[in-house]
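User: Hey, my collaborator sent me this sequence without any context and asked if I could get a structure. I don't really work with proteins. Can you help?
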Amino acid sequence: MTCKSCGAEIADGAKFCENCGNKIEEAVNETVNETVNETVEEKEPERVEKLFQAVHQRAHTQRRRTHQLHRLQAQILIRDHRVIRSHHLYAVF
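Assistant: No problem. I've predicted the 3D structure and written it out in structure-token form, which is a compact way to encode the shape of the chain:
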């Protein structure tokens, strides 16, 4: 393993660099953070795409439900109109 600060070779298990005195745990933590950040950046487009698809699907479902509701309302209005008309016709005769 090499020191992130000075590039000197470090013995396995060492806690400090013998050359510059840099704490090795910090170097390891920096390496882990860099790896995690790279992984997150690689997967971010996939995550965004999945979120977009979920939002799009939800909007589509909402539009479909709204359309179904409007159709049902129209059917009710037509039935009500027929009932009123039939009652009116019976009342006239």
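In plain terms: The first helix runs from residue 24 to 92. You can pass these tokens on to your collaborator as they are.
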